[in-house]
UniProtKB/TrEMBL annotation:
Coiled coil: none annotated. It comes from Dromaius novaehollandiae (Emu). Gene3D superfamilies: MFS general substrate transporter like domains. The chain crosses the membrane at residues 31-54, 99-119, 126-155, 190-210, 217-236, 280-305, 317-338, 388-409. Residues 31-445 form the Major facilitator superfamily (MFS) profile domain. This is Solute carrier family 17 member 5. It is found in: Cell membrane. It is a multi-pass membrane protein. PROSITE patterns: MFS (PS50850). GO terms for cellular component: apical plasma membrane. The keyword Protease does not apply.
Length: 445
């Protein structure tokens, strides 16, 4: 009798696994650490414009098309700190700002499928490295592009998206060769937690740079760090354990023996099986839904903080980062908890993934439906409309949504590595799903 397609085939008992190798100073955890910093910079490069744009636009043009009365009054600071006002200002209306913010995703969706294909054929090291390197170089060119005109800025941001579009397929391709089954959640959660920490750090740091220096340095600083990371990545990382220069023999054998029954021998992408797989399409739908909420908040939250809640660049960066701090903690903890449930409690992989996904998606969707602007809430007349209440309400709600979404995110990233029959074409599958989710961002414009 054939086993059920959704059955969990990964052995969970320690006795059935080869002897483990300590994590400290191991090649696989060094890879996770470098990937962590790579995705840290990846998301810093992605979101820094959202804060910098607040300082790049003339105040009298940013609200030109905003006719709503549901806008907070200006917030006065109790500390009078001189701010730098030397940065050039541009008269971009709301539509133009929408095109600028959305242009990144025009490039991002183009390289998803080619990136997945190249990762499957050539490995992820070069693809991920040059993807972040290219994004960093174009980030360094952003101030020049802004001076040349809106069209140039949109083009540069789209080129940044082209570079970032290959990164997630490349990373998944590498982990399919590096991550032992019982360490998979830990290794991937460490890697992708860098994305959330990059958001947490870059949003307030970008605000401080804009406030005390000049918005152009937002792009120069993060772009230079991305170029520096590229050289460390190319020097220290290999596509597979077999080609790593300094991995110990014990660790190499541990990784290869733990994956020997999972590495696919298919030479081509199984498109027919992909299109006919209901479990895989369930992951696609979930990924699409996640991306819609997450990227809407990621891209537009600083603008919302400025236009509606009326915070300046310095306050904006800190307040926009608060929800993502919880996300960063959550993605680390959820990976550890998932592996604990599988290894110590003998819960099946399918059960753990489904439960975490259900918690993350269902609760975050409920949280996102309960918000109305403060003036429209029944209790709005009972409380003074102070900035503190608005901060706590808005960031508390967004914290809840993003925290729950990240519980889900850590799990659906692993689903791709665990749909056994598609492990060869996994990166292409990821690319297709990313494209679906991010295409919807175009509607933001």
């Amino acid at each position: 009798m054939e086993p059920d397609e959704g059955a969990d085939r990964t052995p969970l008992l320690k006795e059935s696994q080869p002897g483990t190798v300590p994590a400290c100073c191991s090649a696989r955890y060094n890879l996770a650490l470098l990937a962590f910093f790579g995705f840290f910079l990846l998301y810093a490069l992605r979101v820094n414009l959202s804060v910098a744009l607040v300082d790049m636009v003339e105040p009298n043009t940013s609200l030109a098309k905003n006719t709503t009365s549901n806008v907070c009054p200006e917030h006065s600071s109790t500390i009078n700190v001189p701010r730098n006002t030397s940065g050039k200002k541009y008269s971009w209306d709301a539509d133009t700002q929408g095109w600028i913010l959305g242009s990144f995703f025009y490039g991002y969706i183009i390289t998803q499928i080619p990136g997945g294909y190249l990762a499957s054929k050539t490995g992820g090291k070069l693809l991920l490295g040059f993807g972040i390197f290219g994004t960093s170089v174009f980030t360094l060119l952003t101030p020049l592009a802004a001076n040349l005109g809106v069209g140039y800025l949109i083009a540069v941001r789209a080129l940044e998206g082209l570079g970032e579009g290959v990164t997630f397929p490349a990373m998944h391709s590498m982990w399919s060769s590096w991550a032992p089954p019982l360490e998979r959640s830990k290794l991937l959660s460490i890697s992708y937690a860098g994305a959330q920490l990059g958001t947490v750090v870059s949003l307030p740091l970008s605000g401080l740079i804009c406030y005390y220096m000049n918005w152009i340095y937002v792009f120069y600083i993060f772009g230079a760090l991305g170029v520096l990371w590229f050289f460390f990545w190319m020097w220290l990382v290999s596509d597979t354990p077999e080609t790593h220069r300094s991995i110990s023999h014990t660790e190499r054998e541990y990784i290869l023996s733990s994956l020997k029954d999972q590495l696919s021998t298919q030479k081509s992408v199984p498109w027919k099986q992909i299109l006919e797989s209901l479990p895989l399409w369930a992951i696609v739908v979930a990924h699409f839904s996640y991306n819609w909420t997450f990227y809407t908040l990621l891209t537009l939250l600083p603008t919302y903080m400025k236009e509606i809640l009326r915070f300046d660049a310095q306050e904006n960066g800190f307040l926009s980062a608060l929800p993502y701090f919880g996300c960063w903690l959550c993605i680390i903890l959820s990976g550890q908890i998932a592996d604990y449930l599988r290894e110590k409690q003998n819960l099946s992989t399918v059960c753990v993934r489904k439960c975490f996904t259900l918690i993350g998606m269902l609760e975050s969707s409920l949280e996102s439906q309960i918000h109305l602007p403060p003036s429209q809430e029944w209790w709005g007349q009972l409380l003074p409309r102070t900035s503190l209440i608005i901060i706590l309400w808005e960031n508390g709600r967004l914290f809840s949504i993003l925290l729950l979404l990240l519980i889900y995110l850590e799990q659906f990233s692993l689903h791709y590595l665990e749909v056994e029959k598609f492990r060869t074409g996994q990166s292409v599958v990821i690319a297709c799903t990313e494209t679906e989710g991010n295409t919807e961002i175009l509607k933001l414009c």
